Recover the amino acids of this structure.
């Protein structure tokens, strides 16, 4: 026992001596590694700041959320666009450096677009056949919204055909359940977002909480049953919020990260204190005339072009929120960890 104890002790001493001999270089190495890591992190951050400044990143700037309805050859209301007009709408966005993100990506702050580009959200209300009609092989019919989105994207590599479709029980004109499922699954499989637009397109203003939850919850469940997608966002019919605006976000059967209105300005960035997930403004797509002289898409896109300091510009890194230091007071606290002021 004693011998063993001694030899054990001897081993301990030997180990201590060995450690003693080696300890300094080991510690020095660790310290060096730490210093290296800290220096590398600092250099990385400096490089990120430089890149953000070079493209004048402004991730606290405003984002146009465009509101489309029908795409029809002969527009009947100012909500309709012809295929030709819709192509031109998209071409303008491409030309002016806009890249589509989905409504869900906007509200959750997952804006992953190249440096120097501006996000735009393309939304389609009322789930009409003019937006999506497929042939028996699942190919979109010519001049539908999805066909045009795909054409424009194919002509501009790097520009993804991303959009959000706000669904009611109209289900793109399909009444047979399997065909409804085909339509919703096609959208999902092609990278489009499915959103909630209430079952019967009800004006939610002034309705009871029970009615609001039933209108939103029932279509939400239906969308999920058909496509295995739980909508992340809702567009409020006529842009009208319920008596308590949070009823649109939270109900027994649903949880939305954002509720969209129907007018009349660009939306604040999700990282900005001005952002209200329960009431995100959208812009009707229309030329500068009549009611649209100031508050529709042509007017706002002109304004954002003339006022680039007001517009959201990406630094190309979805993990940071980059902005000129001057704008720091507008940053929402929740995003402080990702902030990259320059
Ligand atoms: Zn609608």
């Amino acid at each position: 026992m004693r011998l063993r104890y001694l030899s054990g002790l001897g081993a301990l001493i030997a180990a201590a001596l060995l450690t003693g001999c080696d300890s300094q270089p080991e510690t020095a190495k660790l310290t060096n590694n730490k210093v290296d890591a800290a220096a590398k992190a600092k250099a990385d951050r400096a490089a990120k700041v430089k890149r953000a400044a070079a493209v004048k990143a402004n991730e606290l700037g405003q984002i146009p959320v465009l509101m489309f309805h029908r795409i029809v050859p002969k527009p009947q209301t100012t909500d309709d666009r012809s295929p030709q007009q819709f192509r031109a709408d998209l071409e303008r966005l491409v030309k002016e450096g806009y890249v589509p993100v989905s409504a869900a990506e906007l509200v959750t702050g997952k804006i992953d677009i190249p440096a120097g580009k501006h996000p735009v959200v393309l939304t389609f209300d009322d789930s009409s056949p003019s937006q999506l009609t497929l042939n028996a092989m699942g190919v979109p019919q010519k001049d539908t919204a999805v066909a045009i989105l795909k054409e424009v994207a194919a002509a501009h590599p790097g520009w993804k055909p991303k959009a959000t479709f706000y669904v009611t029980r109209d289900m793109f004109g399909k009444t047979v359940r399997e065909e409804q499922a085909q339509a919703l699954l096609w959208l999902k499989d092609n990278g489009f977002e499915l959103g909630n637009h209430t079952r019967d397109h009800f004006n939610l203003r002034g309705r009871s909480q029970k009615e609001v939850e039933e209108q939103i919850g029932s279509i939400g469940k239906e969308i999920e049953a058909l496509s295995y997608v739980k909508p992340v966002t809702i567009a409020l019919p006529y842009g009208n919020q319920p008596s308590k605006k949070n009823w649109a976000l939270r109900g027994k059967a649903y949880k939305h990260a954002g509720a969209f209105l129907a007018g009349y300005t660009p939306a604040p960035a999700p990282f900005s204190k001005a952002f209200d997930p329960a009431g995100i403004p959208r812009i009707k797509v229309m030329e500068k005339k009549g009611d649209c002289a100031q508050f529709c898409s042509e007017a706002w896109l002109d304004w954002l072009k003339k006022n680039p300091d007001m517009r959201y510009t990406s630094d190309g890194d979805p993990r940071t929120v980059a902005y000129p230091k001057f704008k720091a007071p507008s940053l929402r606290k929740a995003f402080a960890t990702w902030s990259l002021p320059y």
About this structure: The pocket of zinc ion is lined by residues 125-126, 197, 201, 237 (CB under 6 Å). The CA atoms of residues 271 and 288 lie 30 Å apart. Confidence is low (pLDDT under 50) at residues 1-21.
